[in-house]
Design goal:
Order of helices and strands: HHEHHEHEHEEEHEHEEEHHHEHEEEH
Distance between the termini: 76 Å
Number of strands: 14
Structural class: alpha/beta
Helix content: 25-40%
Number of helices: 13
Shape: globular
């Protein structure tokens, strides 16, 4: 006999499991870069300049090194700090470019630069500790700090009349509190292109020493400078026992974004700590990828120069073309491969980015993706071919030039 409706157990109301997650995880912000990219990532007509990724493929000599390693059986676990040969190659790379001697036991190989930053945050931060982050800043920096229980404290860059950015040391010092534990520096900066001179690095080092603070230096874009050979590194002025952690990645220099390989450099004596942290987070990155990384370090200096030269040409095309438009301020950045441009008017950055996607078929990142200090700006990645840069200028000029003629968005800049 069939059960009656009255005999059927009442179905429990659905539970929102998000509500019972940890506060830190529920508080993770949504990427505005992703919000824009999701609207156009599958459209082949869009010129995609929103993500920090070059348009060149990984060089064949790196791919072939990974292939040879797989065929040779390098597909098993290895030490959590990374292959000794890779850490030796990292030491040689830093000696070659910065003239510093870093022994292999001060390196740990990570699953990209993001994992390097996350490991540093986990090592350094107790819940409630504050970390100074110049802003606008790559949003992943803030969220990694929050996930680790820390409190990101934004120190805004100052914007000069010509559109370039500067960061007075006094502004950093004014933001310090008894809870400050770390000062984060990303130089050359994503998204501003600001590059910290060695003299200012020395002054910041002295401040950190005097206050007992850590410096966390993200030096991913060091090769991408325009007019200088290479950006300075805190490694050039710090001792092995200084409270300094440097993070880096293979992604940008060698077009290896999808390989997920990076590294962290830590003070003398912390190898056991990072070995344990790596063991319990990733165990190790793929062994054959590490062999590919050795090839990148040992054979890839020429490819880096090619990348930087292409970026320099695309940078010049974008700056020249956009600066001719009414209401647009596009100063050439000193480093990295991003143009942080003000496009006039009072249109919110996210709205402007979505409109440029619709009307110009150009994907840019809204400035507010990098914090409220980015309002009124958009970020354009110029790690692209000169031809693509010219196409982007032509499309943006069609929309922004029309805006200037019609007065659309012509409020205060």
């Amino acid at each position: 006999m069939a059960a009656s409706v009255a005999d059927t157990p009442a179905q429990a109301a659905p539970v929102d499991l998000n509500a019972v997650l940890s506060d830190r995880i529920r508080g993770i912000g949504t990427s505005q870069i992703g919000l824009v990219a999701d609207r156009g990532r599958d459209d082949p007509e869009v010129v995609k300049l929103w993500i920090g990724e070059g348009d060149l493929p990984t060089p064949p000599f790196i791919v072939e090194a990974a292939h040879r390693a797989m065929l040779a059986g390098h597909t098993r676990y290895t030490t959590s700090l990374g292959l000794p040969a890779l850490r030796e190659a990292l030491g040689a790379y830093h000696a070659r470019h910065w003239g510093v001697e870093i022994p292999p036991d001060r390196f740990a190989v990570t699953a990209g630069g993001m994992n390097a930053i996350m490991q540093a945050a986990q090592v350094l931060l107790e819940p409630g500790d504050e970390i100074i982050i110049p802003s606008p800043a790559w949003p992943n920096l803030r969220e990694a700090v929050r996930i680790a229980g820390g409190v990101p404290v934004a120190v805004p860059y100052r914007r000069l009349p010509d559109g370039r950015f500067t960061l007075p040391l006094a502004d950093i010092e004014a933001a310090l509190t008894p809870r400050t534990r770390v000062i984060m520096i990303n130089s050359p900066s994503n998204p501003t292109g600001w590059t910290m001179p060695l003299s200012e690095m020395t002054a910041l080092r002295d401040l950190a020493r005097a206050r007992g603070l850590w410096i966390l230096s993200d030096e991913v874009y060091a090769h991408f400078t325009y007019g200088n050979r290479i950006a300075p590194s805190f490694l050039q002025i710090c001792e092995p026992d200084d409270r300094l952690i440097v993070t880096n990645t293979f992604s940008k220099n060698w077009a290896m974004t999808g390989w997920r390989a990076g590294w962290v450099i830590f003070p003398r004596g912390l190898a056991p700590t990072f070995a344990k942290l790596g063991q319990y987070s990733t165990t190790s990155i793929s062994t054959f990828v590490q062999h590919a990384c050795i090839a990148a370090l040992n054979e890839g200096d020429g490819f880096i120069r090619t990348m930087v030269d292409r970026c320099a040409e695309a940078r010049a095309i974008l700056v020249d073309g956009l600066s001719r438009l009414p209401g647009v301020t596009a100063a050439p950045p000193d480093g990295a491969f991003y143009l942080m441009a003000r496009m006039g008017g009072d249109e919110p950055s996210l709205d402007l980015a979505l409109r440029l996607l619709r009307e110009a078929k150009v994907g840019v990142a809204p400035g507010t993706a990098f914090g409220p200090e980015g309002e009124g700006l958009v970020r354009i990645c110029f790690a692209i071919s000169p031809d693509l840069a010219r196409e982007a200028v032509a499309r943006l000029s069609g929309v922004l030039g029309r805006d200037g003629r019609t007065g659309r968005g012509s409020g205060p800049a």
